[in-house]
């Protein structure tokens, strides 16, 4: 099932987006962690089919929210293997057209591992989708092979501060310095910044002081069903 974790404006507390997250509950085994099944899906290549299904479900939900007067952007992770599929751009365009969702309400989250091979091809695909209105966020920034040379070429809207830097933000000066540097870098490039893994009010406050735009994490809430998210957004 696809659940959604709210992404929240760091000062107003308003839900501005929701990240789609895959959840699996087996009748016999119970809840199975994504940490257990996603690596197997990647190893087998089945992650391409999973990604395609999650993307389609997420776009359909976002279209339903918009029709119900809940304008919340949906953010969907795309694996490196899925993004490299030759027909990815055409399939995504078809999904958007079938749902009726305006493309600006969809954001694709790419990891740095999606970008380290064949950068020119990646940029061409990103440019083609951005021309339609799709937005892009770079996930887990700073944990992989960060390259400022390609970062300046990518048509991004947002950088995402990894939870590993947020976790010890208040007790480890190095983590605080990295978070601050990411925010400063994003600002200089005209990008927004969101922090993941925010669990305490003190973390949220510190990130706000550093100039972070938005956050997601257990401080606001865990991933929930689409209907629960709708209730949270509309009714508070």
Account of the 3D structure:
Strands 1-2-5-6-7-8-9-10 form an eight-stranded mixed beta barrel, surrounded by five helices. A two-stranded antiparallel ribbon has the order 3-4. The radius of gyration is 17 Å and the shape is globular. The protein is α/β, with parallel strands linked by helices. The protein starts with a strand and ends with a helix. A hairpin with a 5-residue loop joins strand 1 (2-9) and strand 2 (15-22). It has helices spanning 34-44, 47-67, 80-83, 88-99, 119-130, 148-151, 163-167, 173-188, 201-210, 226-235, and strands at 2-9, 15-22, 24-26, 30-32, 73-77, 106-111, 135-141, 158-161, 192-195, 214-215. Helix content is 44%, strand content 21%. It has ten helices and ten strands.
